[in-house]
Amino acid sequence: xxxxxxxxxxxxxxxxxxxxxxxxxxxxxxxxxxxxxxxxxxxxxxxxxxxxxxxxxxxxxxxxxxxxxxxxxxxxxxxxxxxxxxxxxxxxxxxxxxxxxxxxxxxxxxxxxxxx
Length: 116
Description:
116 residues, mainly beta, 4-stranded mixed beta sheet, elongated
């Protein structure tokens, strides 16, 4: 089998919701792709090109998880790309999908008084 098919995501966009205090490494969403090739040419791995976001992806399962700090008051949602890449030889093929993670607020800010 020649590597003539790029991975195809099951959707163009994936959505997840998580509280802003979700534990590190806890799943907040997942992505999924398939590849019509056979053998090694159909084996898919996932990665997130933007390393500045507080999320990572398991390269084998496509599970999206928290890797950094989150604060609803600073940023209530994150939109980023995930790449699915096959193990084709001599050249791998890839495809991209969008992930949107929406944070929910938790009571994490101490009240304060405004002085007149």
